[in-house]
Amino acid sequence: MTAQAAKPVPEPTLKRLPLYHRLLKELLAAGRPTVSCTEIGAGLALDPTQVRKDLEAAGVAGRPRIGYAVTDVVDQLEQFLGWKKVNEAFLVGAGSLGSALLGYRKFEECGLKIVAAFDADPARVGRRIHGTHVLALPKLPGLARRMHVLIGIITVPAEAAQGVADLLVEGGIRAIWNFAPVRLHLPEGIIVHNEDLYCSLAALSQKLAAALAAEPARRSRTPAATPAA
Amino acid sequence: MTAQAAKPVPEPTLKRLPLYHRLLKELLAAGRPTVSCTEIGAGLALDPTQVRKDLEAAGVAGRPRIGYAVTDVVDQLEQFLGWKKVNEAFLVGAGSLGSALLGYRKFEECGLKIVAAFDADPARVGRRIHGTHVLALPKLPGLARRMHVLIGIITVPAEAAQGVADLLVEGGIRAIWNFAPVRLHLPEGIIVHNEDLYCSLAALSQKLAAALAAEPARRSRTPAATPAA
DNA sequence: TAGATTGTTAATCGATTAACAATC
DNA sequence: TAGATTGTTAATCGATTAACAATC
Question: Which residue among B107, B199, B205 sits closest to A112, beta carbon to beta carbon?
Fold first, then answer.
């Protein structure tokens, strides 16, 4: 039988899988042999049916009446998420956010190894941050090709992001994790994930504003509801 | 007429609004008086109808045949997103990520002003990071109440996050921007936004793995498709 | 006037939730 | 066996996209 194009797993599911992985790792450490969807759902405030569907999408099977074998789930999730083999990545922009990410050693457990950092600022080039060398930006495309690096992480200011993205593409990179607050223009086939903090913040503050507007009494600093004594 | 509960704006829409704001700010700077949805959509790779619906949800009106007045849209979006009046926030966890966020001065343009940072580590307490004082964690609840701070930002390690969240709730905080890779257990009515980098990363690397699997020929370092010369 | 563009209603699509059968 | 839990199919819900009428 030919390798049929596997039906893509919905993005929301993809983002929940690490939550299951984390929870089940804890259960594993606690020595628990099995779990039910109900229990997983209770721990993460998710619908049990949704948990079941998500696990099914990741190729995990359980047994009626018994539940899921904890070791199995952990193992299969790591398999499915591609955490078994580590992808090498370049990080561009050795500023404060970039440095913070370089310190996240747990990324390696999630299949991501940042092997080099790049920066346009000569003052930063040549340094090491959390053990990772900072190289000059123009070296990126050549090195990326030579090392077959497939993932690029962008942590430069907004204005510089598109230029960096072009360099990454030139270097044959296939996936970009973009922390700069811009939408990148990229050729077909390049995978992008925008981590746009301003967009998240907007959602948060708008919801807060809406919630406060819904309860006007408690809003003002001098409580208007209680008449002065 | 009574203040009817405004129908909540869908989350996806909320997250797109800042994109419009950004683009229109540029057009404003360029002196453009009006824009059409089609043009906005083209600039952001979004469906024109979606743009129209989003703007409508934010209370922006256009004029048939003319389009939207750029100044109007910018203004109304800022109004709707609550960027006109600044919310004060506490940041907890003055590590590398926390420090990076303290340096993001643009947050203030988006209605967020981080007025103090907190840390459990005595070595960090008393310092200033990008001009913001780092205070001792136990002072948080009292100060939050006294200053009527409503937003908390969590940038501590996973293990510490729930404890920090409890302190924030004790301080009367209403919205939490959580960067720690944990699901927090919170009372009803508290707004949370999880910025879980591991979940984003998982989605990215799984997609990359799937894409690579779909084109096996180009995968290996020694191209198998071309027979040896 | 004619035509472009918004406003608005309907159709489609996808994800979540519910229902129920299969099974250990 | 009985009952809990998975597997799987159907119903619901919400967001996106399409269609078309209103209007400047």
Answer: B205
| Residue–nucleotide distance: B99 CA to D13 C1' (Å) | 41
Top residue of B146, B198, B220 to mutate, by most chain A CBs within 10 Å, is B198
Tell if the CB–CB gap between A199 and B16 is shorter than 8 Å. Answer: yes
How sure is the predictor about A8, in pLDDT bands with cuts at 50, 70 and 90?
confident
Q: Is the pLDDT of residue A5 over 90?
A: no
Query: Using the beta-carbon criterion (under 8 Å), do A204 and B177 form an inter-chain contact?
Result: yes
Asked if strand D comes closer than 7 Å to B65 Cβ, the answer is yes
Q: Which of B48, B30, B111, B127 is nearest to B77 (CA)?
A: B111
Nucleotide nearest to B49 (CA to C1'): D17
Q: In this structure, what token pair is assigned to residue B64?
A: 């048939």
Nearest CA in chain A to B220: A148
Q: What is the pLDDT of residues A108-149, one digit of tens each?
A: 999 999 999 999 999 999 999 999 999 999 999 999 999 999
* Rounded CA separation A139/B89 (Å): 41
**Domains along chain A with CATH numbers:** 11-80 (1.10.10.10), 87-198 (3.40.50.720)
B99/A102 Cα distance (integer angstroms) = 14
Q: How much is the mean pLDDT over chain B? A: 91
* Spacing of C-alpha A114 from chain mean position: 14
Read out DSSP for chain B? Answer: -----PPPPPHHHHHHHHHHHHHHHHHHHTT--EE-HHHHHHHHT--HHHHHHHHHHTT---BTTTBEEHHHHHHHHHHHHT-SSPEEEEEE--SHHHHHHHH-GGGGGGTEEEEEEEES-TTTTT-EETTEEEEEGGGHHHHHHHHT--EEEE-S-HHHHHHHHHHHHHTT--EEEE-SSSPPP--TT-EEEE--HHHHHHHHHHHHHHHHHT-GGGTSSS-SSSPP-
**pTM, full prediction:** 0.92
CA distance B132 to B143: 15
